[in-house]
Specification:
Length: about 500
């Protein structure tokens, strides 16, 4: 049994888009600083988020235009105003939904915001940022220029996906790239500036969190989107045909979430070619993310042992096959570069022995989810079967809320849950939180929806359903002050509070 490398602790899962605020989506401004202080008051150690990358047409953080870039929709207008880059007249008459993200209106507003900020910067305002921006662009040039050029070209083509681009641009022919760089100089600069501003706001927020004892768990999707700067700039690292279209795509076979499986549509890596480069792309990617967070939840850990290869012509994930991945070679290289592996292995779903062996050999904590634990005593997701080196969740972003889940159970499952807990179920959300917090798992995490005892109206994502996901936001009036002391007391009682609190 592997000894935990983390302290016994607790945390809350909440993506920044779900934070309240006046601009239609959560951002990195004043309310997020309040959130950090609230986490500290609740005696939490961890804030867990979803991937921070710029989202595509599906709004999913797991389908991003880049594995390196960040989402400018999270930029705080108020902080940009403090920098002298924008005026509040930009939003004085705007009104947004409070409890749902209306992505079209938010994207339009934040695009106008960054365009205005870039124009202000070019005109000489906020000149104190000039040297800092130039240093940033130089430091991050290994991914930043390709990303900015990709976004500029994509916008000029009306948002067409990569596979529908003119062939000379799709294939990155030198004359076509040179011409595009000249034509879109301003747009390229704007996209670079947006990334600079995000990192600047994020770095300040993370420093504020660290000073209050709050660490951040990030999230890295194993695969990248087909319509991404990563595929465009590194096509030799993926299984593509001559037209840069995937020959196979990623997903998982039928499982708990979907009888057709999950057809993600992501291209799959050419691991042989990756190995020939000494996994440089992965080393750069993980290094970049660890500059933003303290710990990474590595999504679909099974895919590093074997990935489900679905022929690109298939519409569901039913027909596919498991194909070997890089296994331990990738992680040995990452450890060599990083000197450590601050990674949580997302080992949910159909897990084979080789996955467990790889996780344990690397000493990584795996995941356990209480909502998956109703199959009887041998079930690995019940706390009495845990090993200390794991992370216990009441539910994840892919699950219904604890209340919504409980309301969907039949009488047999409700009785079994009560029998296992040892008493009748009162508030299912807090009963599961207590169960997670009492467990031997080194880290216990609950989505904020469960702390707020919300039902399925607050569900973040429903796998296999294309529309309506990733939109939930909480309102300040939903967060009662007594919840702070209640969770803080529970965290102290079960020895998960930071030392000294």
């Amino acid at each position: 049994m592997t000894a935990p490398s983390l302290p016994r602790s607790a945390g809350i899962l909440l993506h920044p888009t779900s934070l309240p605020g006046p601009f239609g989506v959560g951002d990195l401004g004043p309310i997020t600083y309040r959130w950090i202080e609230t986490l500290a008051a609740m005696k939490q150690t961890w804030w867990q988020i979803l991937p921070l990358g710029p989202t595509g047409d599906s709004d999913s953080p797991y389908q991003s235009f880049s594995a390196f870039a960040s989402d400018i929709k999270l930029l705080s207008p108020e902080l940009l105003e403090q920098d002298g880059l924008v005026s509040r007249s930009l939003w004085a008459t705007k009104h947004f939904q409070e409890d749902r993200v209306d992505y079209p209106s938010v994207v339009a507003f934040k695009t106008d915001l960054i365009r205005t900020a870039w124009q202000s910067f070019q005109s000489g305002r906020a000149s104190q940022l000039k040297q800092e921006f130039e240093a940033y662009a130089n430091k991050e040039s290994h991914w930043l220029h390709d990303y900015a050029l990709f976004m500029a070209i994509r916008a000029s083509l009306g948002g067409k996906p990569l596979t529908e681009w003119p062939k000379d641009l799709l294939l990155r022919q030198p004359t076509a790239l040179e011409s595009a760089q000249k034509e879109f100089t301003g747009a390229i600069g704007m996209h670079k500036f947006g990334q600079f501003l995000f990192d600047r706001q994020w770095e300040a927020l993370r420093k504020f969190a660290a000073n209050r004892g709050i660490k951040i768990i990030g999230d890295a999707s194993i695969f990248v989107a087909a319509d991404s700067a990563d595929v465009w700039a590194n096509s030799d690292l993926f299984l593509l045909n001559a037209d840069r279209k995937p020959t196979v795509v990623a997903g998982v076979p039928p499982d708990y979430f979907s009888e057709d499986g999950q057809h993600w549509g992501n291209p799959i890596y050419d691991w042989k070619r990756m190995g020939e480069t000494n996994y440089q792309w992965w080393c750069s990617r993980i290094s970049r993310q660890l500059a933003q967070v303290d710990l990474i939840r590595l999504d679909h850990f099974r895919g590093f042992c074997q990935a489900w290869h679905i022929p690109a012509s298939e519409k569901t994930a039913r027909n596919g096959k498991w194909v070997d991945g890089p296994g331990i070679k990738l992680f040995e290289r990452l450890r060599e570069v990083l000197q450590k592996l601050p990674i949580i292995a997302e080992d949910l779903g159909l897990i084979t022995q080789d996955v467990n062996e790889l996780r344990d050999r690397l000493g990584l904590p795996g995941m356990r989810v209480l909502q998956f634990a109703l199959e009887g005593p041998p079930n690995l997701h019940w706390p009495h079967n845990y090993v200390p080196n794991c992370i216990c969740y009441t539910g994840t972003h892919d699950n219904d809320t604890a209340k919504g889940w409980y309301n969907s159970l039949n009488d047999k499952d409700r009785n079994y849950l009560a029998l296992t807990i040892g008493r009748g179920i009162g508030d299912p959300s807090w009963d599961l939180i207590r169960l997670a917090w009492t467990s031997v798992a080194v880290l216990a995490v609950a989505p904020l929806q469960d702390v707020l005892s919300l039902g399925n109206e607050a569900r973040m994502n429903k796998p296999g359903v294309a529309e309506g996901n990733w939109r939930w936001r909480f309102r300040l009036d939903q967060f009662r002050p007594d919840l702070i002391s209640r969770l803080g007391d529970l965290t102290t009682l079960y020895n998960r509070a930071p030392s000294g609190k």
